[in-house]
Amino acid sequence: MTESDLTTPQEVTAIELEEIVTELQKYRDRLVHDTTEAIHKARLPKAKAISQMEPEIARIDAMIQELQDRHAALLASN
What is the pLDDT of residues 49-69, one digit of tens each? Predict the structure, then answer.
């Protein structure tokens, strides 16, 4: 990767932010779905597994919210 391949926050477009948010949401959905499926197949206590997954889900949700806020701010400035 060259230096020109790297983008600064100012260079990220609204479309790129929207794509990133969409991919993060898909990742979050896959994580929840796959974990739920694994819990079911392994017959593990659902509550315990979900509680262990919650910090990761919260981190992803915070990232999604931050990116949505940046997207809205970028759209408002144009």
Answer: 888 899 999 999 999 999 999
